[in-house]
Amino acid sequence: MSKNKSSIPGVKPYHGPAGGWGALKATAIAVRTQMDAFVAPKTLLNTNQPDGFDCPGCAWPDKEYHSTFQFCENGAKAVTWEATKKRVTPEFLAKNTVSSLLERTDFELEGYGRLTHPLSYDALTDTLQPVTWEHAFQRIGEILRAMPSPDNVEFYTSGRASNEAAYLFQLFAREYGTNNFPDCSNMCHEPTSVGLPQSIGIGKGTVSLDDFDHTQLIIAIGHNPGTNHPRMMGTLHEVARRGVPIVVLNPLKERALERFTDPQSVIEMATYSSTNIASSYYQVKAGGDAATLKGIMKTLIEWDNARGDILDHEFIAEHTLGFEAVIEDLNQTSWQDIESESGLSQADIESVALLYANSPATIITYGMGITQHNKGTANVRLIADLLLMKGNIGKQGAGICPLRGHSNVQGNRTVGITEKPSPEFLQKIEETFGFKPPSKHGHDAVNAMQAMVDGTAKALICLGGNFAVALPDSELSFSAMRKLDLSVHIGTKLNRSHLLTAKETFILPCLGRTELDVQALGRQSITVEDSMSMVHASSGKLTPASRLLKSEPVIVAEMAAATLSYSKTPWIRFTESYDLIRDMIEKTIPGFDNYNQRIRVPGGFRMPLPATERVWNTPTGKAMFSVFEGVKENKDVKGDDVLRLVTIRSHDQYNTTIYALDDRYRGIFGRRDVLFMSDVDLIARRLKEGDKVTIETVSENRKLKLENITVVSFSIAQGTVAAYYPEANVLIPLDYIDKESGTPSYKATPVKVYAQQQQVA
Ligand SMILES: Nc1nc2c(c(=O)[nH]1)N[C@H]1C(S)=C(S)[C@@H](COP(=O)(O)OP(=O)(O)OC[C@H]3O[C@@H](n4cnc5c(=O)[nH]c(N)nc54)[C@H](O)[C@@H]3O)O[C@H]1N2
Ligand SMILES: Nc1nc2c(c(=O)[nH]1)N[C@H]1C(S)=C(S)[C@@H](COP(=O)(O)OP(=O)(O)OC[C@H]3O[C@@H](n4cnc5c(=O)[nH]c(N)nc54)[C@H](O)[C@@H]3O)O[C@H]1N2
Ligand SMILES: [Mo]
What we know:
- The protein is of the alpha/beta class.
- The protein is built from 33 helices and 31 strands.
- Helix 8 (163-176) runs parallel beside helix 28, helix 9 packs parallel to helix 21 and helix 24 packs across helix 26 (474-482).
- It is globular, with a radius of gyration of 25 Å.
- One ligand MGD binds at residues 57-58, 74, 188, 221-224, 227-228, 249-252, 254, 284, 286-287, 289, 367-369, 403, 405-406, 646, 648-649, 653-655, 747.
């Protein structure tokens, strides 16, 4: 609602464009509160430079490796947060019991700074105490060797880990004997990894940055780049200025998708002007994208029936199978269902169809608004269908563009972090390392937590991340952590998952990406793969936060060596130079030929993407259309007063890492305990902005609720409400998932909202 002032503390509608001077100011604050003023500029200038480090912020690629520093506010926050001068010292930990730390917020916990010593939990004093690395590895090894079965252990990976660390991690777990690889991707783009191989033969996006220079239309669905992929804003800004239409589907009006001032543009900065990003913005209901996409497809087919030249018939005939079933299904899908499920009118949907019909080259970009639903995988396949209808894959300026999460989440999967390894990969591992890796499929993230809940999982080893906080159903997940015999966390900063201690808990502090990594054979680089399948090197420069830190590959290798006493794998030698690890990756995974040479070329190299050449690695050798049954993305929950809750990231957060308590573009300052709601829904509940409410999940068995939340009037689709992740994770049942991919449906929890006093009664 456009108001200039709000009397609610911390609520102040934001009217400017995204980016601009506000972004520069926010960067200055991030630098001032975290870093030494003289180290910061040099550090930031090293981000995404040929001999510098890859930005730990997001997975958007960079255009020219020789270019000047590309300014990005949230990249700067990610870098300064890691390069902070604050430290969690043994003295601090001696004074603060784990129970007292658990009472602090996630913001406070990470805010204490970088971990400096390997730690273990001492139950007698309820504190984390420094231990030697030797002791930690030896004890972890002992406990792991004593496990009844390797399948009692879960090996979690968060997507910031490098290819080298992730490769050693999967090798360790597989030689130990399990495929239990829960990873952050299971909560994120798994529907892409499961859906796209079925549709186009590869689970990755097909566009490159160059395609954005040639595209004639972008449809941006369910992602918020101003906050989460800020370097993408530079690309969208350029595309918009070329006059190319950008259609946005999003229940919330996200300011960066409306207008943006590019901090790189001298003119816009000097004149306080901005560029409109979306040419049209449709506030679809949460979970209404499938209906919208089906509406667009239905329109195209009707027009094509009349004119014959709307679809790419040649492409469909030569390259695809299954289109007839799609036509049949669309004939049976009623406009009434499409309109009620999407919240958009037929006329709106036809306007998008018209743009699409007229565009010779279209890119569809998408994020969590598509994947985190009960039918997330079917959603992704529907996007592929729409593109295939007009031959928009394997054509310049066109393609599918999933916006990945963590900066190396795509690379982790490429190098073997998967609970469902292919027989070819396992064969290569066996040939190369001489042990037989297990072939039985393992646990993904939700399965791993379920195994922890029912007691079959007894140990959890985390390569980064904040497993329990990232997962849904906090009450269940938190108590499951406490039942474990062993938890091990390789991390940079303290978080709640570290503090939900097991019988024995070890926290192993590692180097961050920004830090210098020197091993026996000299200074090391790691490698990462971005959203567009470009693999390149990253090498830190800063002095490590503590002398005791070890790199992630070294920690994994030493843990493996201490656990697998019989192993023939030369674990410690691998850490002398990461080139040796890369040689192993090259030997066992296709696409890494001449790995070590090619990453020494600035910009690196691109992994093979057969779909971009219209080679379809599906069982039929064709791109496959798929039918999305009905129009509902989520289990149908009846009731007039049921709302759909989406959980979102604020502008000042990186997943469970909270940098600060503001969400500038959404007009929230100094707090996170809010629920965004449309005026229509406020009135229907006799609520007014500022009222305190209880949010309750509509669920058959358990009562899940979140109290003391303040409602804020916002431009959001009627029937949809939004709250921040991870606070709202208490409301999401652990089994509320997309069955095809296992991904939690974080974007469509059915809830009821009551005024606080009603709840008490
Ligand atoms: N600064 C920063 N950068 C990040 C992250 C971060 O937390 N902070 N996280 C990283 C990670 S791991 C990821 S996965 C990405 C996440 O990047 P995004 O996918 O942008 O993440 P979300 O905040 O979950 O936002 C989803 C957007 O989808 C919209 N939405 C919600 N439900 C629906 C729906 O049903 N339909 C449609 N059409 N839209 C919907 C929301 O309004 C919101 O604008 O960003 C990565 N980059
Ligand atoms: N409700 C709701 N829940 C969600 C989502 C949502 O949209 N809504 N999104 C989901 C998504 S998309 C994702 S990807 C997951 C994220 O889940 P995770 O990846 O598990 O979570 P992060 O918050 O990114 O992890 C933060 C921690 O990583 C550690 N860390 C930071 N840098 C490094 C490093 O360089 N090395 C190591 N070893 N550790 C490091 C720090 O200790 C820090 O506390 O959350 C999911 N959960
Ligand atoms: Mo993610």
